[in-house]
Prior knowledge:
The protein has 200 residues and is an alpha/beta fold. The protein folds into two domains: 2-135, Response regulator (Rossmann fold, 3-Layer(aba) Sandwich); 142-196, Arc Repressor Mutant, subunit A (Orthogonal Bundle), CATH 1.10.10.10. Helices cover 54% and strands 14% of the residues. The chain has helices at residues 11-22, 36-46, 62-71, 87-95, 108-119, 127-135, 142-152, 157-164, 168-182, 187-196, and strands at 2-7, 27-33, 50-53, 77-82, 100-103, 124-125. Helix 4 packs across helix 6, helix 8 packs across helix 9 (168-182) and helix 9 crosses helix 10. The mean pLDDT is 90. Pfam families: GerE, Response_reg. One of its GO terms (molecular function) is DNA binding.
Amino acid sequence: MIRVLLAEDQAMLRSALAALLNLEADIEVVSAVGDGESAWRELQRCQPDLLVTDIEMPGLTGIELAQRIQRNELPIRVVIVTTFARAGYLRRALEAGVCGYLLKDAPAEQLADALRKVQAGGKVIDPQLAMDAWSSADPLNDRERHILRLAGEGLSAADIAKQLSLSQGTVRNYLSEAIGKLGVSNRIEAYRLARQRGLL
């Protein structure tokens, strides 16, 4: 039996996915939650075989969950099911050890098959997205990405500096680097473009 933890912030979709997966004779959804922090707590409590997660959720994103699983060396494989067909997201997901990356518009039967393949040690990735991921480079480093995300959430340079224990000048330098690398004129445009390309 493949034991699955489901993390999806849209309640209707979460219920539908859980119901579909529970119809499979060899798959059991042991828990279904609506945000990243709850998913992290349930991962430790239930110790499932697989985490099936969306990318964008309150608290922790699906990629951040995968990074935590990787850092803590938990024996849990991660499959992302998302609407975001963005090469930047896929590249970051793979770096975080994700074994599956499927789009929500794929046929439902593909998900159960993908979970079986991942549980058997394989990887399942949308082929067109995989090609796009390797043909487009990610210009941002992790610090620039983090600071740009905070700036996009409305934090000032002073707020970011305080939160990350950096000087305001250092924060401005990172923002300036990110703006330059993305070829835009200000932090708002940089945040918008980075989100559009799946870099955040």
